[in-house]
Amino acid sequence: MKILILNSGSSSIKFQLIDMPSENVIGKGLIEKIGLKDASITVKNAADKKEVIKLNIPNHAKGIEFLLSIITDEKLNIISSLDEISAVGHRIVHGGQAFSKSVMINDDVMHGIEACVELAPLHNPANIKGVEAMELAIPGIPQVAVFDTAFHHSIPEHRAIYALPIEFYKKYGLRKYGFHGTSHQYVSLRAKEIYGDDRTENVITCHLGNGGSLAAIKNGESIETSMGFSPTDGLMMGTRCGSIDPGAIPFIADHEDLDMYGVSTLINKKSGLLGISGISSDYRDVSLAAEKGNEDAELALKMFHYDVKKYIGTYIAALGGIDTIIFTGGIGENSALARREILKGLDGLGIKINHDKNDATMGVEADISHDDAKVRVAVIPTNEEVMIARDTFNIVNQ
């Protein structure tokens, strides 16, 4: 069964075509700059043959239309007909309180996703456009919604509700939702596949990229995560400030004469690694600047590494112990520096890495623990698309 996976953004659509249940990727790519003059579609087949096509792509519907025509082009040898696509799986960022698992999309589900737009105003509208574009392109094809927030529904209420008047939770659903759930779930399941039940009861997953979050996972269920009501909470990130004293917000707004939009822009787009380093939101750029002696860049890295370390310590307490720590995401998978600095000084907790293994690991699965360490430290590249394909396959075949 061939399943098309779509991750629709405001001006882009990432896609993969996955053959299930083998999980073989037979085509993938990216539609970029939808609505702009220099829009393009990049497509790769299973043999890594790539084609980049510049097109006028005014909206998501046209982008999907072009995508389907390209993946059926005989030159790329991906599929010969749209009839080969059995279902579509969509990454939906926010499912609110209504969706605790992946679901087949129907009118009621679409209304539910639309109701969550105020919780994810930058993401859910784009996700909706992807669903609507597919329905126009292949009417009646089964479509499945896989929610970033669903995995964290198992977090107990006493850890999820903020210490604000309880009516805000009851009226508005104001609570911790968490994000990156599909990634946290995938790598925790993959750890169990690789290592069996050995030391996978209490797991901390570190999804570190331009956006980042940690999750504490007990027996396969999320019991705590660092992002909250919004993706701004938790770790210091590329451009997001992460957790700060709420009292700082009115202080800054007053002194800098910022309205709510200005505050939102500040904490989401001008803070984090970018705000501290003054150089870039990209960890690699900040690392290079630090190597050259830039003190602000050095400070940014120290803050980031400490932030992750702090959450690891907190989650060891929440779990009542730790068996395995997993690094994933662009930084987690590829930066030996980040892994080394984050875990430095944790030997007393049984966390010790093999530095040769760590330095040699980039973007591949690896156990980088020291031989005498009590806690396993693993690098597992995330694969959210496969996780979405699995859910879609299982739901369509129920």
UniProtKB/TrEMBL annotation:
Name the Enzyme Commission number(s) assigned to this protein: 2.7.2.1
GO biological process: one example:
acetyl-CoA biosynthetic process
What cofactor(s) does the depicted protein rely on?
Answer: Mg(2+); Mn(2+)
Q: Which residues form the signal peptide?
A: none
Q: In which pathway does it act?
A: Metabolic intermediate biosynthesis; acetyl-CoA biosynthesis; acetyl-CoA from acetate: step 1/2
Q: What is this enzyme's catalytic activity, as reactions?
A: acetate + ATP = acetyl phosphate + ADP
Where along the sequence does the record put site: Transition state stabilizer? H180, R240
Binding residues annotated for substrate, in chain numbering: R91
Q: Which residues bind Mg(2+)?
A: N7, E384
Cofactor info, note text: Mg(2+). Can also accept Mn(2+).
- First-level EC class: transferase
CDD domains to which the protein is assigned, alphabetical: ASKHA_NBD_AcK_PK
Q: Which GO terms describe its cellular component?
A: cytoplasm
Q: Name one GO molecular function term.
A: ATP binding
Q: Where in or outside the cell is it found? A: Cytoplasm
Q: Where the protein is mainly located, per its record? A: cytoplasm
UniProt keyword annotations, A-Z: ATP-binding, Cytoplasm, Kinase, Magnesium, Metal-binding, Nucleotide-binding, Transferase
Q: Which residues form the active site?
A: D148 (proton donor/acceptor)
> Which InterPro entries does this UniProt record tie to the protein?
Ac/propionate_kinase (IPR004372), Aliphatic_acid_kin_short-chain (IPR000890), Aliphatic_acid_kinase_CS (IPR023865), ATPase_NBD (IPR043129)
Give TM regions: none
Role of this protein: Catalyzes the formation of acetyl phosphate from acetate and ATP. Can also catalyze the reverse reaction.
> Which proteins does it associate with, and in what oligomeric form?
Homodimer.
Q: Which family does it belong to?
A: Belongs to the acetokinase family.
Q: What is this protein called?
A: Acetate kinase
Q: Which organism is it from?
A: Flammeovirga agarivorans
Q: What is the lineage of its organism?
A: Bacteria, Pseudomonadati, Bacteroidota, Cytophagia, Cytophagales
